[in-house]
Amino acid sequence: MTKDLQPLSVRLIVVPAVVALAVALVRGQQATPAGTYTKEQAEAGKAAYQVNCEGCHRPDFQGDQDAKPLAGSSFLNAWRGKTSNDLFTRINKTMPPDTPGSAGEEDNLNIVAFLLQANKIPAGTTPLTHESGVPIPATTPASNRR
Ligand code: HEC
After folding, report:
1. pLDDT tens digits for 87-111?
2. How close is the Cα of 72 to the center of ligand 1, in Å?
3. How far, in Å, CA of 10 to CA of 71, rounded?
């Protein structure tokens, strides 16, 4: 019964605020579903990497001349705080430099999975998608470090 004694003005502020917060939470989750990649994707990505990227970025991911490293501390340092989606977009739009996007979106997605694996980010059961936002950590996850 006390509810009915609340001044109308309070309800006018509190109710929309709660609704807005709930909407923001739901939207936030939809906008950045972290997700993972699967071992199968990384496996497919390895083959695509060998065909499309390895010539410049090398089998050990450390790059050559201008081609930057794609795994290890300097890569993580450059990409920390970004996500698999940022990496996918960058690759899809700019790599290889002379024919951007030529590997195709599906292979580029698999290549991102392969690069996550190369950076020791653990695989999971949820496949990587164009919307996935798997976070790129500042350092190799401690549990996977050797
Ligand atoms: C002909 C050589 C060449 C090939 C092939 C190539 N790259 Fe690159 N890549 C470069 C060069 C040079 C740069 C640095 C210039 C730039 O950032 O555009 C670079 C930069 C990058 C970066 C940005 C790294 C950073 O930290 O900023 C990513 C990611 C990348 N390449 C991924 C790929 C992937 C994935 C493929 C295969 C689909 C690929 N590249 C194929 C030469 C190449």
Report:
1. 999 999 999 999 999 999 999 999 9
2. 15
3. 54
**Ligand 1 atom index nearest CA of 78:** 26
Short-list 67, 87, 93, CA closest to 137: 87
How many angstroms is it from 25 CA to the middle of ligand 1? 36
Q: How far is CA 44 from CA 107, 109, 110, 112, 114, in A?
A: 8, 10, 6, 10, 8
CB 96 within 8 A of CB 56: yes
The CA distance from 112 to 97, in Å, is 17
- Measure the CA–CA gap between 125 and 18, rounded to whole angstroms: 34
In whole angstroms, how far apart are CA 63 and each of 55, 66, 127? 9, 8, 27
Residue 144, token pair as written in the block = 């996977």
Kindly report, residue by residue over 111-132, the tens digit of the pLDDT. Answer: 999 999 999 999 999 999 999 9
Residue 142 CA to residue 133 CA, distance in Å, equals 20
Locate the ligand 1 atom nearest the alpha carbon of residue 112 and give its number: 35
